[in-house]
Fold this sequence. Notes:
It is a single chain. By secondary structure, this protein is of the alpha/beta class. Helices cover about 30% and strands about 20% of the residues. The chain has helices spanning about 5, 75-80, 80-95, 100-110, 115, 140-145, 195-205, 225-230, 245-255, 270-280, 290-295, 300-315; strands spanning about 25-30, 40-45, 50-55, 130, 150-155, 160-165, 170, 180-190, 210-220, 245, 260-265, 320-325. Strand 6 (about 160-165) and strand 7 (about 170) form a beta hairpin.
Amino acid sequence: MTEALNSIRGIAVTCRICGNREGNKSYLAREMLFGTREEFAYFQCASCGCLQIAEIPSDLARHYRSDYVSFKPSVEKRFASRFRNFFRVRRYRFAVLGEGTLGRLLHALAPRENLHRLSLAGLRRDSRVLDVGCGSGELLYTLRTLGMTNLLGVDAFIERDITYPNGLTIRKGTIDDVAGEWDCIILSRTLEHIPDQHATLRSVAARLAPGGTSLVTIPLVSSQAWEHYRTNWFALDAPRHLYLHSVKSFHLAAGKADLGIEHAVYTSDDRQFRGSELYLRDIPFLAGPPQSRAIFTRAQIRAWRRKAAELNAESRGDQAMFCLKKRPTTGTPLPRAQFPHDRGQA
């Protein structure tokens, strides 16, 4: 038995989401994104289902290396070609804002689902958008090219503030360093990294403008991937992911901040299988993709993509985007949202 797991064996650990102390089950997870294989104790709450790290590391920044995926500043290169930008911007503008006949056609031919999901917030060109935990700001940079200017990003783990030539600013900091009201607050694969879930969601509620929407994308422990892979589950990502919510635990956390879940869109992809299968073979993910071409066949990857789509349709995928409004939580999130542009409301 390792020291990390022994530290919580026999101790009535308390769930930081619902306060339950009874029947919580402990696990031991390794750092496998970079492959340090350092071990960390986790436990899953027997009441709300949230899987959470037993002890939050005091040196979290150490686990976010400069080559961490969200820090890679590749976005400017993608918009370097004027010719490609002419079509790309129109396709993206329709995906997000519902504008343009040419954009509608281009998006139908080559949809960008991650951008299209933003339309659930009813964004306009003058919408005030705050992206929390945005890394190098790739999403906001894209929105800036669409003519949106009221944009701000914050990330606690970037080395310093970033100012792009197009005027976009990314600040080193947290949501508590930001003032004002925002029409849309985005936490995309961010909340799971934050030690105090309740305080963060209260900060979101306090900064949402009347009628505003928060779009929160998180990995979900109430998924087929966790049930099958357990501590080899790719999205566990010890120790950076401090909380892996269940649908129930996220409802509870949002409700305590007076945020209501309007609906959920399941967004998992084949990485839940590719990454987890690499970890089963003791291969770090960042060393894995080149090797995975030899390990996994194209047929396997295609099958995993189909399986991911099936699980999303069944609300069993390992990641979902929740749309939150300022009101008490009621009911259950819908497995599918109705996108405004798909209803002919562009």
